[in-house]
Amino acid sequence: MANEVVKDQGAIKEAIVRRKKEVYTPVKPAQQFGFIHNNVDCIGCRACEIACKDKNGLPPGPRFRRVMYVEGGTYPQVYAYKVNMSCNHCAEPACLPTCPTGAIYKREKDGIVDIDSSLCIGCRRCEAACPFGAPQFIPEQNIVSKCNMCVDEIDAGRKPYCVQACMMRVLDIGPIDQLRNGTYATKARAEHETVVGQVKGMADPELTHPSIVFVAHSQGIVQGTAPLGNAPTTPKATPVTPAIPTVGKTNG
After folding, report:
1. What is the distance between the alpha carbons of residues 150 and 46, in angstroms, rounded to a whole number?
2. C-alpha distances in angstroms, 22 versus 16, 96, 101, 161, 235?
3. Segment 213-225, tens digit of pLDDT
4. What radius of gyration, in Å, describes the C-alpha atoms of the chain?
5. CA–CA separation, 83 vs 175, rounded Å?
6. To 5 degrees, how large is the angle CA 169–CA 95–CA 203?
7. What pLDDT is stored for residue 18 in this prediction?
8. Are the C-beta atoms of residues 107 and 84 closer than 8 Å to each other?
9. What pLDDT does 2 receive?
10. Distinct helix (H) and strand (E) counts, the chain
């Protein structure tokens, strides 16, 4: 059962009037949080999806987080991997300026994009504007809602439910600049792995600059895109010392 949202029609009208008088100025946060997902090691258990729906009290239908299965090839050259996405808390969110009531906002301290559901009128403009399909319409409440990175957990010093539920530790959050350059300590990325900002089938990141990186499957890499950040150093080969056979004494 979805969480009940109490709406004040007077407050909504005031918000619309206030919104019309404002000039949209993009928020430049002190730091930008983002996601990292390892497409290769994800087993597609969907524990993250279930944890998200449980946390947000979502009915059947809307999903703030989605695990997508990608399969292809012909025998014996076949492949399969998973891509896990929710709201990408973009640097330039397309949803935000489309909201007529100003219900959508971006937090200055961490760049998380959230929605004040009490001001949402269910016009679904944000849903149409997002190139990643993040905003989800909840017909029972006539509102649009989406991932807010579990801001209450973030403010309490914990990680979102989806990250906590991931048994393979392939999903994590952190400062997106550190996730991109590989300096953020996370179990979602091994030292020898690189990350990319786009995988096949994903909308062009140049549209909104999403705050997400992937450890991509070889079949999911978009041709012509280079890995982000510093390329991992090739481990030095360990010199092999030839074994010296032990020669036993012989009698004689």
Report:
1. 17
2. 10, 13, 11, 35, 55
3. 999 999 999 988 8
4. 23
5. 20
6. 60
7. 81
8. no
9. 55
10. 6, 9
Query: Which two three-digit tokens encode residue 248?
Result: 């036993």
Rounded distance, CA 237 to CA 187, Å? 24
Peptide bond into 210 cis (omega under 30): no
Closest-CA residue to 160 (of 89, 227, 69, 101) = 89
pLDDT higher than threshold 60 for residue 243: no
pLDDT, tens only, 63-101? 999 999 999 999 999 999 999 999 999 999 999 999 999
Q: Is the confidence at residue 233, as pLDDT, over 60? A: no
| CA-CA-CA-CA dihedral for 37, 42, 46, 51, to nearest 10 | -50
pTM (2 d.p.): 0.84
State whether residue 80 is helix, strand or coil: strand
User: Whose CA is closest to 173, among 112, 233, 226?
Assistant: 112
Please tell me the total number of residues recorded for the chain in this structure: 252
CA distance 88 to 91: 9
N- to C-terminal Cα separation, the chain:
90
Tokens in use for 233? 């150093």
For residues 21-34, average pLDDT: 89
As a whole number, the mean pLDDT across the chain is: 89
Tally of CA atoms within 13 A in the half-sphere of 84 that contains its CB: 27
* pLDDT over threshold 90, residue 238: no
Most confident of 7-11, 18-22, 178-182: 178-182
Q: DSSP string covering 185-233, please?
A: --TTS-TT--BBS-BTTSPPGGGT--SEEEE--TTTBPTTPPPBSPPPP
Q: Is residue 33 a contact partner of residue 114, using CB atoms and an 8 Å limit?
A: no
DSSP code, position 243? P
